[in-house]
Amino acid sequence: MAVNKLKLIKDLSNANGVSGFEEEVAELIKDYASETSDVLIDKMNNVYLNRKQNTGNRPVILIDGHSDEIGFMVQSINGKGLIKFITLGGWAASNVPSHLVRIRNYQGVYIKGVTTSKPPHFLKPAERNQTPSIDNMFIDIGATSREEVVETFGIDVGCPIVPDSEFSYNEVTKVMLGKAFDNRIGCACVVAILDELKKKKIEVDVVGTISTQEEVGLRGSKVTSNKVNPDIAIVFEGTPADDGFRGIYDSQSALKKGPQVRHRDGSMITNPKLLALARSIAVEKGINFQDAVRAGGGTNGGAIHLAHNGVPTIVIGVPSRYIHTHYGYCSFEDYEATIKWGVAIIEKLNSQVIENL
Ligand SMILES: [Zn+2]
Q1: 175 CA distance to ligand 1 centroid (A)?
Q2: pLDDT tens digits for range 54-86
């Protein structure tokens, strides 16, 4: 049976998995992909999806999506029962206060809390214009003492903290709202591509990797890419949308304008031949795409293209509004187009094409 793409991304978006704590995502991927792939999970919780039809004597195409989302970790608990935390991954301090989070306690139970803020009634004039600092924030679970947090709720130093948001889908706009589209949408693309490939005859082996700890320095993919040793890699991402604040000629990641392909970012300059091939396939298949030259940022492509003797790698992103906050929007059509493009690229690859890159 074909995988339900909407349910797949809903389940992945709702799953808990901040950097270093991705086991729930790994198990979900295993459930969804075991029909198409032999699944292996390593000690870092990286997931390897070896397509069942792989022969072992053809070029290897790696398709990657990182499983971790940004979040927080408990650093200490004060006498009032307020929880001091550090960030896992890149947060803007202004996006942190007054949001719901869930803290995984030492029994594995999730406890709801709120990131603290000062009511306007108590804000001094100077404070109103100040940029908040994470150093001055806490998480409040409604406790009134340190003992209550530690003993009653089982929360202590080192517990992971996840943004608390629920996925929803708007049938009218065909837009999805939820957390962690960076990068559960990429994970969903990897699973869905392997599913689509069930019906296809291809000339390459395909290995999916759902790599951990991207948001804290591309750590999982340093392991996965060296283990898989691919000939070509395609990285799928939830890429930051820019259509809300850029003009039509400057925007390179607008919702509903198709997947984004990166020519460069802070971590990689894309192999021009592979990029040209991917772009020509999109044109041939009538897939709208957006070219992006990113001034900064980085993806697992940064680690993967440097594995072994160097791997021609491209990064294809589904535009996601407001990533690295509690909520984001992604277009279902962009997600489907990304899957279609990924499948079409894989169908085009063979030893000879790869030789000429
Ligand atoms: Zn990402």
Answers
A1: 19
A2: 999 999 999 999 999 999 999 999 999 999 999
From the candidate CATH numbers 2.170.190.11, 3.40.50.880, 2.40.128.20, 2.40.30.40, the one assigned to the domain spanning 71-163: 2.40.30.40
Report how far ligand 1's centroid is from the alpha carbon of 181 (Å). 8
Average pLDDT over residues 275-286: 98
214 among known catalytic residues: yes
Supply the CATH classification number for the domain 5-69+179-355.
Answer: 3.40.630.10
Query: pLDDT over 70 for what percent of the chain?
Result: 100
Structure pTM? 0.97
Cα(254) to centroid(ligand 1), Å: 17
Distance 118 CA to ligand 1 centre (A): 31
Q: CA 149, 151, 155 angle in degrees (round to 5)?
A: 50
Q: How far is the CA of 29 from the centre of ligand 1 (A)?
A: 17
Looking at 69, 196, 214, 215, which residue is catalytic? 214
Per-residue pLDDT of 305-356, as tens digits, reads 999 999 999 999 999 999 999 999 999 999 999 999 999 999 999 999 999 9
Kindly list the domain boundaries of the chain, sorted by start residue.
5-69+179-355, 71-163
Residue-wise pLDDT tens digits, 210-227: 999 999 999 999 999 999
